[in-house]
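Continuing the series of single-chain predictions for the mutant panel. This is the parent chain; the variants come on the following pages.
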Amino acid sequence: MAFTPPPEASDFTFTLADALDIPVRVRSDGDLAKWDRRQAPKAAQPWPVTDALPADGEYLATTTWRQLVTAATSAGRDLAPWLRKTPAFAVNELIARVAPLQAYLTLKDFKAPAGAAERRLFVNAVYRHGTERSAHAAFGYHLGMTMAQWLTVGMAGLPLVDPTKKLPDLYGNHAVEALPWLIEAKARKSLGVGDMRDGQWQLDQATAEIAVAHRQVLCGTVLPEPGRWEDDHLVMMVHTTLVGPSSVGGVHSLPDPPSDGGEPSLDEAPNYLLSVARDQLLVFRALAFGAVQDLRVVPLAETGPGPGEPSRRKSAMRPLELDAGTRDLRRRVLAEGVPYERFRQEQHSTVKEFVVGRIPGIGLHLGLSRGLYAACAHLHQMQTEIPAEEPLFPAAPFLVRCGADEEREEMSRKARRTFYEREDERLVTVRREMANAYRTQEVPAGLLRGAPLVVEGPEARGGVLEARTAETYMAVEPTDPIMPGHR
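Parent structure:
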């Protein structure tokens, strides 16, 4: 998600109406000391465009609100064992993940070096004066998970995190580094060395479960302390170290390094397709079964690295303002009157269609490529066929008797483990079905819900800000609460 201007762009950040800066300190020396609040705002070194964590230093990472919202949609508990029977609630879960950021954050102008966005994230008056301590704690937890997702997946090249691993923290396989990453997130007001030590202890406990070398990444998001709300913006402290294998660990797999330094193609790697489909299953269920609005099929150009972008990750998020191929597609169809079907036939290998819908209440448009949508449909169908007897769905009175949150949380972890153990028995068949569905893009009857194909520019929906990866689409509306006054 890191952006640098293309060589021909003279005013890059001005064209990205939701651009913002986040100071990030990276350390690998084991020193968990708090970043001095007087020093953090002075971070000026641009975050390097690389598919890895950079060397130790104090960086100013320029990103977009779109990218943070995308991270928020992936930051949360794995609900697949339960949503497979109630898929319409996927919309509710997406609202729950995004709405807190819209409710409690605001963008404010902040002086920065040339090339930066000159805007930073602050907490707003609703957070400061309209919420109680418990709401502050809940928001801190969710924001910490969101920022860890943004930094590791968006900025440091981790393709995605795997919800099926039997580990208490975020876990993912870094394709370029060819190492598993174990990630712990912390966030709170005036986050300090004590909080970071707690996070490091949690990482060390999880490390004991891994029988291969791996990377620990501790992500701390610092919210301002009371009395500094108008002056201090959000900053991140990242601590990382390489750790050797545990002699008693039970996780033995290492990711296979890609042959070209990028991510494997979904049509050639059934296991990777399964991982991506799991990661996007919440969005699929919202689009296929939820109360979404404006369901439609949106054609975009095939994507690749943009000018000046060395990243070859297909999962890298890019704003559509920089997508020359999609601009050309829309220009030819909308301005020149070329029928879309004729354009598609002429440019068949360079056009990809996305199933897109608007999530109500938060003004967020999400979409999946037709091939990924078809693959998710087969994964969803397989999961619905897994028996749902005890202990996956314990009776409500038993939950009440459990009482303590820790016990209830352990029950949820056991339920997830049981679910994925049952799923394992069906994966051989479903991998083949998913791979075939991805290639043919054939969606089971009824799951497109009559969505029309629409070729339109962002102005057709009030000037939405669009972004995409090779397989996903998203857009935020100009009425997003964080946007007014900064367009």
